[in-house]
Amino acid sequence: MEFLHISSEHPDAPAPGSRVGILLINLGTPDDTNYAAVRRYLSEFLSDQRVIEANPAIWQPILQGVVLTVRPGKSGKAYGRIWNRERDESPLRTFSRAQAELLAERFRSENVSVAWGMRYGTPSIADAATELMQSGCDRIVAMALYPQYSATTTATANDQLFRFLMKIRRQPAIRTLAPFPDDPVYIDALASTLEEALAGLPEQPQVVVTSFHGLPKDYVRKGDSYQADCERTVVALRERLGKTSEEMPLTFQSRFGPAKWLEPYTAPFVAALPAQGIRRVAIMTPGFMVDCLETLDELGNEVRHEFMAAGGEELTLIPCLNACSQAIDLLEYLARSQLQGWV
Ligand SMILES: C=CC1=C(C)c2cc3[nH]c(cc4nc(cc5[nH]c(cc1n2)c(C)c5CCC(=O)O)C(CCC(=O)O)=C4C)c(C)c3C=C
Ligand SMILES: [Fe+2]
Ligand SMILES: [Fe+2]
């Protein structure tokens, strides 16, 4: 077992004062589209035993060998297609920063600081927590921005924060966020984003496909509540919008590796629609709080291409909540629900 190294007070100890910190956590993204940067990111991501549960003695040689030889080049090209050239960074980073900055404005006149950190890559969760502590926060609300719980996302984000806290002497108090798959504020934000995007269309889509990031079925069998949470989201959305399961089906994207993942898979599901007479579709991605590789490239490019090749006419990709005012309202509401008694 590794021995804990507990640091002396500087630089981890909270500065004197009594502020509360809000730490927004998202998945993370590479710093560049080049092979080395994408390899570094994927290596950290896919070495996480919450993400790949296989025995590391078996998985690491496969990962460091074939996977990290082939995948960084392919993924780097995909990142290149969606890269934010203006800021020279990945969209996930741009939107995550924007959410944090806009949320900070909502708390400007209160004793509350906001920081953002990534589970993989930069800025790290440790950097973000240190920033909060150095600004005087002795209490932190950790908000892993996943509406649907999964051990592969929510739990590993919280693990990483506590792993950092293991090394410091004067820990801040921590509150973590519960998943919010059918919270009416979240459902309303999704519904209004969809309605806004559809309002500008000359013809309405016949079907609005919901697409969530997939997960190995085995993880669900072992107790991950992710699938049930995705279903709660879609049932609440259908109710809110008066849609049937045919008009708003639930699908799962981004399968990785040979195992069985949650079904139906988005790409074949969408490609089969034109043969059923459905040529105008919209796709929305309620599980992603910000647009990223999986939404902008996998759906916006790959799935769109397959749909068109199968005879589709119009595919409208609904933006994620990103930094729109409803998204910041939602973040503020979630944060305030955790701040009770602290602020
Ligand atoms: C076994 C592998 C993976 C599991 C399990 C997994 C779960 C999972 N992921 C997200 C959200 C995102 N994933 C993203 C990218 C991504 N995901 C995997 C693999 C697993 N994800 C890989 C290898 C990648 C990297 C890209 C690629 O090479 O294809 C992203 C986008 C990141 C970005 O930079 O834009 C998000 C977001 C969830 C919600 C989830 C569990 C439900
Ligand atoms: Fe993923
Ligand atoms: Fe993908």
From TrEMBL:
It holds the Pfam family Ferrochelatase. It is an enzyme of class 4 (lyase). Keywords: Cytoplasm, Heme biosynthesis, Iron, Lyase, Metal-binding, Porphyrin biosynthesis. One of its GO terms (molecular function) is lyase activity. Its main location: cytoplasm. It is found in: Cytoplasm. InterPro entries: Ferrochelatase (IPR001015), Ferrochelatase_AS (IPR019772), Ferrochelatase_C (IPR033644), Ferrochelatase_N (IPR033659). Its EC number is 4.98.1.1. It comes from the Bacteria. Gene3D superfamilies: 3.40.50.1400. PROSITE patterns: FERROCHELATASE. It catalyses: Fe-coproporphyrin III + 2 H(+) = coproporphyrin III + Fe(2+); heme b + 2 H(+) = protoporphyrin IX + Fe(2+). The keyword Ribonucleoprotein does not apply. Pathway: Porphyrin-containing compound metabolism; protoheme biosynthesis; protoheme from protoporphyrin-IX: step 1/1. Fe(2+) binds at residues 213, 294. PANTHER family: FERROCHELATASE, FERROCHELATASE, MITOCHONDRIAL. NCBIfam families: hemH (TIGR00109). Catalyzes the ferrous insertion into protoporphyrin IX. Belongs to the ferrochelatase family. This is Ferrochelatase. It comes from Acetobacter conturbans.
